[in-house]
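quick one, 137 residues, struct below
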Amino acid sequence: MARTHEFAVGDHVVLDGTGNPLHDGKVFGITKTNPKTLQLEPLDGGTAVRADRPLARPATDAEVMNAKTFAAAAPAPLVLGSVVKVLGRPGLYVVVEVPTGRSDLFDVSVLGGDQNRYLRCDRASLTLVAPESLRVT
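---
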């Protein structure tokens, strides 16, 4: 039987061998420990995950520092109803859906509607518009 590291809430771990490119190599903080699994919250934002203990290894200080630096530089999170600008397109758009399991893709529609048409855009092509900069005319 393979030995696993003893983890505690607040420790930082890296997942390896999950087969999921969204999780492999990513640094997580432990929010809850269970006998066979760990409840994890990514340091750079995103969706919490539950992973088997053998898939986790302790994160090095350099990995934790890189993840925290990336999180500080990451754009503000988008939620349903956020008003955004789309790179290369005129006008304002509103986030109408975040497809399940994908924290990097968003469905956006023209603000005011466009006959139920929408665009699926990655986060890098969206810019959050500050609510205070909007005005009703």
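The longest helix spans residues 61-73.
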